[in-house]
Amino acid sequence: MGVNIGTGDVVKVCVPNYKPKSYSMSAAREGEFDITFKVYPGGRASGYLDSIAVGQSIDVFPMGKKARHPGAFVGLVAFGVGITEALPLAAIELSEAEAESVRLLWCSKSSGDTFWREWAARLAASYPGRFELVDTFTREDVPGARRGRVDAATLREVFDGVWGTLPGGENEARRGEVRFTSVGTKEMMRAFDVTLGEVGYPMPAHALLKKPGE
């Protein structure tokens, strides 16, 4: 279909009697691709996909307008089910030579909302020292995970603090090589961009994926 996980392209699913719904590919192979979705009670799009039986057909079309702007330090932030785009993107970035470190911050309500642990573990084992998944939960205390939402202090600790790119850090001179992207609702992503500005990474200057003209 010409859809590229590495540039954040989406697959538009034509839902009968409803507007097309965007889904990110979670994997792609020769002649086929995966989309991963969460079934919501009463949800029009997820309910429709859940009703499709093996062998049935659906109408889809690709949409993508962004280009990759690589950097040595890649920060990915997934809000909830945004992990279905963020973890595949992390895998793509790790395959690129420019990415020295890829860190993924996953903000969920509770540990029961998480999945793909085996995949994340395989990435960490395959790219030792280059990849780490960091959890933060808003409604549960989990050993080894953070508690709370994504704010400026969290970003400084999870990303700059590890990379040494804080002002006065050993890699302060390389702050221009830091790239970010977030995956969530439009409101979440807009709020995240504002928070990044507070940390000293104005968007879209530090965006991993950019639209033409940004």
Structure, described:
This protein is of the alpha/beta class. The chain has 2 domains: 5-63, no CATH class; 67-210, Nucleotide-binding domain of ferredoxin-NADP reductase (FNR) module (Rossmann fold, 3-Layer(aba) Sandwich), CATH 3.40.50.80. The protein is built from 5 helices and 11 strands; from the N terminus they run E-E-E-H-E-E-E-H-E-H-E-E-H-E-H-E. The strands form 3 sheets. The chain has a 5-stranded parallel sheet, with helices on both faces. A 4-stranded antiparallel sheet has the order 3-2-1-4, covered by helices on one side. The chain starts with 9 loop residues before the first strand and ends with a strand.
- Look up the CATH topology of the largest domain: Rossmann fold
CATH homology-level superfamily of the largest domain: Nucleotide-binding domain of ferredoxin-NADP reductase (FNR) module
What overall geometry do the principal axes of the alpha carbons give?
globular
Tell me the strand order in the biggest sheet.
9-8-7-6-10
Number of domains: 2
CA-atom Rg in angstroms = 18 Å
Query: CATH top level of the largest domain?
Result: Alpha Beta
Low-confidence stretches: none
Mean pLDDT across all amino acids: 94
Number of strands: 11
The portion of residues assigned to helices is 25-40%
Strand content: 25-35%
Classify the secondary structure makeup into a structural class.
alpha/beta
Distance between the termini: 25 Å
Please identify the oligomeric state: single chain
Major sheet, described briefly?
5 strands, parallel
How many distinct helices?
Answer: 5
Protein name: FAD-binding FR-type domain-containing protein
GO molecular function, one term: oxidoreductase activity
Domain Flavoprotein pyridine nucleotide cytochrome reductase-like FAD-binding: 10-60
Organism: Emiliania huxleyi (strain CCMP1516)
